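Hey,
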Amino acid sequence: MGIVTTAELMAAATAARCGVLAFNVITLEHAEAIVEGAQRSAKPVILQLSQNAVAFHGGRIGPISAAAHTLARSAAVDVALHLDHVQDMGLLRQARDAGFSSAMFDAGALPYEENVVATRAAAEWAHGAGLMLEAELGYVGGKPDAPASAHAKGVRTDPAEATEFVERTGVDALAVAVGSSHAMTSQSAVLDHELIATLAEAVPVPLVLHGSSGVPDDQLRRAVRAGMVKVNVGTALNVAFTRAIRDALVDDMLVDPRTYLSPARELMAGKVQLLLAAASPTIRDRSPEPA
């Protein structure tokens, strides 16, 4: 137990026909809560730090990644480190030395051919550095450069295009647009499970679901059964974190941050447990869904 690679966790999930959850880290409390929730659940987990989170830390990747790496090394479950939604090649080139075993290069806002060229260059560099590379095709809702709705015409990932994209870029995993949206604070997303199953059959690398905070638990289970391997969660933890702090600060005499960060961390750990139970079933079968 302890630190492993993202490739190892995704290969194990693929072989076991189950899903592996990846949670966004913003603060040290996020990382501690994610590892604690995973340990309570006795399930592996991926700690992922986004380019936006690095920007929040003043553009310095070292301190927060070092903290995440330390927590991963001492964990009682398998933990991998992943650098998410990277658009800056300069940041991508820091990933290996910062302790990450994988990254997601996000050129999804570019026209298709430009996306292919940029992503292929990122994949070639990543593979030379010993990193697994994830990319995105289609437009997951909730991003500033995406269409307003995850259900807008033309935003879903096309299976034939996805197959070609993977072949031309050499990426190791593919995030796909199937109805989820980033930054959702309610579980009201509607996934296209038929498309997920079609993509899983067509695409030769593991599929990744972004924007999973807004997906109801039963739909997460169905998505994993249909073929999703890596399931990304971020906003759900922030909702729990903020709720706990807001409740604690009703007492306006509180000044010690430990008095409100402790319950916030605990609520996030509990949310991690719930999501691990909901979205990482032990068996994924491809049998038809009940009518």
